[in-house]
Amino acid sequence: MTTARLRLTPGDVVGPVRRRTFGSFVEHLGRCVYTGIHEPGHPSADADGFRADVLALVRELGVSTVRYPGGNFVSGYRWEDGVGPVAARPRRLDLAWHCTEPNTVGVDEFMRWAAAAEVEPMMAVNLGTRGVQEAIDLLEYCSVPGGTARSDQRRANGAADPYHVPVWCLGNELDGPWQLGHKTATEYGRLAAETARAMRMVDPDLTLVACGSSGSGMPTFGAWERTVLTEAYDEVDLVSAHAYYCEEDGDLGSFLASAVDMDRVVAAVTATADAVRAERRATKRIHLSFDEWNVWYIHAQASKPPTGDDWPVAPPLLEDHYTVADSVVVGNLLVSLLRNTDRVHAACQAQLVNVLAPIMTEPGGRAWRQTTFHPFALTSRYASGQVLRGTIDVPTYPTSRFGDVPLVDAVATHDEERAELVVLVVNRSTDASTRFEADLRAFRAARLVEALTLSDPDPHRQAQPDDDGATAPRPNGTAAVVDGRLEVDLPPVSWSILRVALAGQGA
Ligand code: AHR
């Protein structure tokens, strides 16, 4: 059996585990909002029409932050349509997804849902069809305590206190020709800078995110970031990155290496941001908001919006049914986000419910966990303290998409208060188990607390609504801590979480 060896020392600290790494995304898209988080007729619905069964799963998932209301949707959105008496709200064409938007849920409902879900809201403003004025109107509506037209409108709509929205996205994917209001990098950079400047006049403490590229495959990738940041460097804090992966043409080996690409995206975007920093002789650094990432079978039928005269309300769209292999990749993408915690200051899995989602719902019926739920929930629950990058000694294997890549990938976190070290590890082999050994003597590793492994003899097995536990991680009986060394056998196509108690720190 091949052996992978991880060396970890206290000097391997990359930075803190950021709660905002565990963000998610709710877009007015398909059934994410309507019959997803919101279904007034559902037996579990609360007074606002929010499904309590979904809220419970969102809390179990450990989501920290939720981006809203899009995505492509936001680039044609008029936020004013979604406030005030529901019966008086207009129905609109949603051009992004060729649907009808009833506006039953808007800013106030979302904020109440976020409070119930115990998540931090992250808002996006429309810089596609709208501009500076509408962005500051929305900010005034959300953040000003009262005494102005927009803040008093909010108060009249039932929210006496302002909403706490610390992070704002300045539009969405405006590099993409599919985006309403698609712009050149210079046009967008100027608009982002002007919008940011105005928003900071309302609240100087906001964290503002400029749109980076919608994907590293875009022909303008790199050049877009460079121009946008040249225009907006002083005004913004973060630049966004988006990445979606899927298994193509049965090439499981490449798919399992998706996190290699995510590492490269982080390296490329931060290098570009740092080059602009050097050119401008700036002192501040721009970090990343990886605010859309996931597995997405983008060419599948489920991703095709309606066409022609068909403008339905909340049709099933982008309802990918995930496999065990998909969940291993999701777990590995979280490993990458943690490993890059020095530069990735926020991240959002896209999306939360029904749309490319860890949580699925049946209208009027069950809410259930996809395979991808588990690595997110466990990483969010147990990764804490400081991230340790470590050095891994492991053979590589060839892939057609990413070249030679390591067979095993891992990252660790060290929480002094909990006296716990957590190792997250992925075996990318499609057919063989790999022995994994981590030398933890520098941390005085005392005993194994828990070892859970997500794998299945059929890596393409999917969770089903009536047995969503069948594909959940299972205890890995091969794991042990011996003389400060952690050892475990990793089955092929697997993701594992290993929790180790440390001596002399309350173990
Ligand atoms: O998450 C689905 C879509 O992917 C979003 O609306 C868009 O921003 C991206 O292209």
List the total number of helices.
10
Q: Give the full name of the CATH homologous superfamily of the largest domain.
A: Glycosidases
Instruction: Give the oligomer, counting copies of the same chain as homo and different chains as hetero.
Output: single chain
Shape: globular
What is the rounded distance between the termini?
32 Å
Say what the CATH topology of the largest domain is.
Answer: TIM Barrel
Structural class of the secondary structure composition?
A: alpha/beta
What's the number of domains? Answer: 2
**Uncertain stretches:** none
Estimate the mean pLDDT confidence: 97
Helix content: 10-25%
What does this entry look like structurally?
- This protein is of the alpha/beta class and 507 residues long.
- It has two domains: 2-11 and 386-502, Golgi alpha-mannosidase II (Immunoglobulin-like, Sandwich); 18-357, TIM Barrel (Alpha-Beta Barrel).
- Helix content is 24%, strand content 26%.
- It is built from ten helices and 26 strands.
- It has helices at residues 52-61, 107-117, 132-143, 149-156, 185-202, 223-232, 252-256, 258-280, 324-339, 373-382; strands at 2-7, 13-16, 23-25, 65-68, 92-94, 99-101, 120-125, 167-170, 207-210, 238-245, 287-295, 344-349, 359-361, 367-369, 386-388, 391-393, 396-399, 403-406, 408-415, 420-427, 434-439, 445-454, 474-475, 480-482, 485-490, 494-502.
- It has an eight-stranded parallel β-barrel, surrounded by six helices.
- Helix 3 crosses helix 4 (149-156), helix 8 packs parallel to helix 9 (324-339) and helix 9 runs parallel beside helix 10 (373-382).
- The model has no long low-confidence stretch (mean pLDDT 97).
- Bound molecules: alpha-L-arabinofuranose.
- The site of alpha-L-arabinofuranose (AHR) has 11 residues, from loops.
- Alpha-L-arabinofuranose binds next to loops.
